Amino acid sequence: MRFSIPRVLLVSLVSAVGAPALAQEQVPELSTPPATQARPLTFGFFWENDSRLFKPNHPTDRFYTNGVAVTFAGQPEIAREINDVIPFGDRYDRFALGGIVGQLMFTPSDLERETLIRDEQPYAGYFFGGVYWQRADRTTVDHFQIDVGIVGPSSLAGETQKWFHSINDSGEPEGWDNQLHDEVTGQGYFRKKWRLRVDPDGVGLNADVIPSVGVALGTVYRWAEAGATARVGYNLPDDFGPGRLADVRAATGDPLRTQRGLGVFGFVRVAGRAVEHNMFLEGNNFRESPGEPIENLVGELQGGIGVQYHWKNVSIDLGYAQTVITPEFHEQETTHAFAGVSFAVTVLF
Questions:
Q1: Of 7-16, 28-37, 141-150, 202-211, the least confident
Q2: What average pLDDT does the structure give for the chain?
Q3: Whole-Å CA distances, 322 to 7, 20, 47, 341, 347
């Protein structure tokens, strides 16, 4: 299977990283937070699924059918020191370092069939772990992430789905013997977001718009994307939009700026992606395996709600969202949808 890195992805990455330098004079300089400022430590959980449990309005069990991940992030001094060796970092004064561990699973539409299903999403499981580093100011955040993982039986995705189906009495999936082969993977991501907030220092009703760009380079995905999120709510948190399993929330927020008490918001996100490689659809990179030709242009629409409660040195965040994705491979005749819940606890030390 070909393993080219298209020039458009590299150009997108260089342009996105370089953008802060071009806009530096337009952003007011911010003072560095004092060393005695409280440092947050955040633990998060994401669960995405396309079944009736999460999405009763349109239950399915196919394509991207389940994803689970746990995350942790903080603002240690080493996160600030990393900025000294990364270009275009003079404008930033907030830094975070974090990690993620997760499992994804993909299946065809017919889970009762034991034989290989052609012209369909192949069975695929993915277990991965990664580290990410973020830098930000009041209006911009950069997110760098590196994941390593394994695709295939060793991901234990088949066993996980069979166990889950056994406890909710939904029938055992029969086709995991046809999944992609074991293959160690390496994956990198870069995302950049800008926050345009109405009345950023006000208390009460707030709104913001958060444009974003990103690229993925690796053996699992290779794509370039652009999108935007719009939020409206009461006491919006000091971050760059709600997180999801594929795009964890920024952990660079200033805890001294977070409004005490309750915050509630609704949001809508739209995004488009130019895809050059998707291992979960095209199959193994270095061995013969089931696979399908991919669509090179994919769109996403997401909507959801978020709730945050901040009391003294603890903040709790809850979220729910539904995502609709346009067809990702040639024989896919309909869009696909899944829903997700998120939970995070931040403690200030």
A1: 7-16
A2: 87
A3: 33, 32, 12, 9, 28
Cβ neighbours around 175 below 10 Å, total: 20
Classify 257 as helix, strand or coil: helix
Residues whose CB falls within 8 Å of the CB of residue 40, separated by 6 or more in sequence, listed in order? 74, 75, 251, 253, 255, 315, 346, 347, 348, 349
SS3 for 148-194 is: EEEECHHHCHHHHHHHHHHHCCCCCCCCHHHCCCCEEEEEEEEEEEE
Amino acid symbol at 139: T
Position 55 scores a pLDDT of 75
Which of 16-25, 227-236, 314-323 is the least confident region? 16-25
Name, in order, each residue with C-beta under 8 angstroms of 101's C-beta and a sequence gap of 6 or more: 69, 70, 128, 129, 130
pLDDT of residue 21: 41
The CA dihedral of 128, 130, 136, 142, to the nearest 10 degrees, is: -60
For residue 235, give both structure tokens: 């006491």
Please tell me whether residue 17 adopts helix, strand or coil conformation. helix
Distance, in Å, from the CA atom of 69 to the CA atom of 71, rounded to the nearest integer, reads 7
Q: Average pLDDT for residues 282-287, to the nearest whole number?
A: 96
- Domains in the chain, start-ordered, CATH in brackets? 7-22+40-348 (2.40.128.140)
pLDDT digits (tens, 9 = 90+) for 59-87: 678 899 999 999 999 999 999 999 999 99
Helix ranges (DSSP H) in the chain: 7-22, 77-82, 157-167, 279-282
Largest CA distance in the chain: 62
pTM: 0.86
Going by their DSSP bridges, the two strands 183-194 and 140-151 should be labelled as antiparallel
Q: Report the C-alpha gap between 244 and 187 in whole angstroms.
A: 18
C-alpha to C-alpha distance for 47 and 175, rounded to whole angstroms: 23
Tokens of 296: 């090179």
Q: How far apart are CA 284 and CA 151, in angstroms?
A: 8
